[in-house]
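Consider the following assembly input.
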Amino acid sequence: MRITATPVAAPVQRTPAAVRRRSLLALVIDALLWVFLVGAVALVLVPVAFMFVASFMPPAEIFRSPFPWWPSRLYLENFLHALRGNDGRYLFVRTILNSTFVALSISFATVMLATLTGYSLAKLPFKGRTIVFLLILSTLMIPFETIMIPLYIVVTNIGLQDTYPGLIVPFLVSAFGVFLMRQTLLAFPDELLDAARIDGASEFGIFWRIVLPNAVPAMAVLGVLTFQSQWDNLIWPLLVVQSDSLKTIPLYIAAFTEEKHTNEGAMVAVAAIASLPMLILFVSLSRYFLRGANLFSATKG
Amino acid sequence: MTRRRLKLNTSVQGRQAIWGWVFVIPALAFFSLFAFYPIGNAVYMGFHRKSVLSLRPPQFVGLQNYLDLFNSPAFWNAWKATTIFTLGTFIPLVVFSLLLAVLIVSRKRFQRFFQVTLYSPAVVPGVVAALVWMLMLDPRGLANQWVNFVLGTPGIDHRWLASASMVRLSTMVVYFWGYLGFFTIIYIAGLGGIPATLKEAARIDGANALQEFRYVTLPLLTPTTLLVSVMSMIFCMRTFSTQYMFTQAGAPTEPINVVTLFIFNTAIRDHQLGMASAMSILLLLVMFFFATLQFLASRRAAG
Amino acid sequence: MARTFTTLLFVACMLASSALAQTEIVYWTHEDVNRTELETRLIAEFELDNPGITVRRVTHPSANLAQLLLTAFAAGRGPDVFNDTIANQYPYIVNERVAPVDPAAVGAASLDEVYARYLDGTLDPVTFGGNLYGLPLEVTNWVIFINKNVFEDVGLDAEVDYPKTWEEMMEISEQLVIRDGEILQRRGFDFRYPWYLEWLVPMVEQLGGELVSADGEAIVNDEAWLRVLSYMREWGPHGRNLGSPTYRNARALFNFDNNDIAMTHTGQYQIARIQADNPEFYDSGQLLIVPFPRWEDAVNDQGAAYYGHYFMVNAQSNAETQRAAWQLIGYFAEHAEEYFATSALVQPTHELLASPAYRDHPFSEVFAADMATARSVYYGDNSPRIQQLLKDAVEAVMLQNREPADVLPTLREGVSRALRGDF
């Protein structure tokens, strides 16, 4: 251990006064640390607070100097404009539904397929399993951005351009998901599986009735992470979607902010509406999000 | 009983092997079509010239695309932009997430509250983050107001979205803000893995908090630091939406023309699919290198 | 998984059922509230006259249209009818992605008759290899729009004091600007930034320079180019700080008369948009429109480039759809006067240009006179890329304060490569 090798001040007997002075100092330092921490958290929250406050302001106030931090009057027109769009077609509402549908479909498919594949790789010995595992593992090292253009060519070649399947299918399985579920299921007790086999359960039955229910916590984490990353996906819809009826939120926002009729109030209202569902989801499921961040790192080994 | 178990095993093993394959086939088919095939296709396209709009078959040009890339200042500029962005973002990320993690863990109360609040920017969609920051970085926006207040320099325009160095800094700030909480959480997990007895031992030896951090916590956190560094580097190299949104809003392209944006524009604006494919392959090779590093790092973190 | 397959099946059924229906024309265009109202009505009338045809009109934000068209066409799923600015559309002609005009379907006896309907030269950009590939939705040029209120605010009479030269433009803008320190609260004039082919190239041409010479050489006349780039640097935050691409789009602000912009440059269609966005301002008579400025020592007396948005038809649509599409476009073209009346869009037919509606429209003569001096916007297989190269050059001098002399060689190299089709 490093500690024993490093020189550390030898314990010294202190007078009561010195101890008191020391504890006072510690108290001051402690208070400063609190201030620093609270300050850091407050700074991190500034953009979020700005977004919500500004969305209730008349557009002219958003660039007022100094920024008022409280709307002079509750200006809901921003939200109406955001929902109505520049042309009164309420496309944003459709867009929210699209994003929800796409992100949910992908999350559901990813969770199911990743669990199935992960289970097989963890618990069903078959010839070539290591190679399959390594193959899947290798795709973990291919970030989406590097294959977006090649993938775009493939998806257009098979005719999925500008369709829901075109948005969804390329994300049905994630290598990370397979990996996560395999690592989780490695610890699954073999006795339970064997007992089920002796009872004559089919392999799929075992997966469905025994493995799946026991993997729910890990599945929830994977689902939440997948949902979040899909809600955020800009680059892929940018390539495959042309129809208004298929647009997802990031795509809509990117277009809406470029449009000349859009004022700052409506922009920031669109932003607020787009982030609200994620923030609500996050606050209510923060356990899974935080655990997800950990698993992201810890299970990769 | 033993006999029955044995018999079960032989027949069951065969059955398991079959079902094992059946269960991985959907995933394998998927990865073949949506990961391996596109890469193969990109390799092929990388040796060809093809316009996005052209209906003619791709024209074989050998290594010409790669040679053109290596001779192109714009290509090297893209790597420069990505490198500056990555270095400028991941180092502060590692330092501050470690600092915040240690601070949070040292608090007896509100630990969870701090974690949740710090993490919250990570769930705000990247496009929304870019949009909100663009409004704050507007010449009349919050950023100028606050910085001028702190520096006592009223009326100065810091050109957050205009000058080359500032627009680079702005993209870094947006990214830093988005991922700080994420890496803090990872560090907190790493800190949780340090046995309390070691810290106690250090305390008994008379170490103060700073010494304890320097000689106990930091060395034991090395695997986590390694992991966070490589992960944040990979995240940074993948950045796209911030740069896309900023350049669409009128920020100069050159300083923040990162590789991902460059690939996108080469294909979509300049219509050159072959060139974009060749660039994808090069990016893939670089990323593969870092991903291997990450894999090794996480091995160390876990073991 | 089951859910995904259900979706797949559902989409497949949708596609199949729409294919079985009668001829459907999918028409993509950019957002324009006035025109949407008009075309929705025209389409309803057209569908009534042609029971076998239905039209699906889809609008996209103008800034996104080019990219959406490209990704759709690349996938072989482009719309049957679309419009965009010619600089973006020209590659579709060169790559044989659009179909030639069907004279019979647009109600003409011959191709010559179609040409005879339009002002000379306005169909040149869509003429390629002896074929005609589009009909204009609008052709316009940009001139200067002035809000007289702001001029009055600083004691100027816009009618007299309006800027005639680029030199004056800078001086007058300086008088109109309100700053908080370096931060602009009100601008005098500001440019429309990413559209350099439309206004920056003509500024160079006024001084005798060229983007591409007749024999294909890039960036002709260094002196002219350096003058214009230096002017842009002077205009930007490192010079006299009169405007910049990172401020909000001047044209978007202009309509609202919020005392934050005095002048912008834009096309005739903007008049109808001001009327729609801010009738109060429009009716106040405080809108003034004057010609595109010239340099004091201009060699060529030349306005901003004119450019068209053309209706084009997807060459991959089946023959029947293509015919129906040209019928629709022909129907639109018959209503040129209504396009002008509702949206101030000029389809440059002799008939419209001679009509009292056009001649009596406020400021028509300003546009017409300037257009008579103007050249067409540059269009070519690589025009989107050249637009971007100009953008990089202007940003380098304006925002990064680089020397125009250092930037020009890069620009020339880039444009030469683009012209050669090299990377």
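The two ends of chain B are 39 Å apart (CA to CA). Ask yourself how this observation constrains the way the partners meet.
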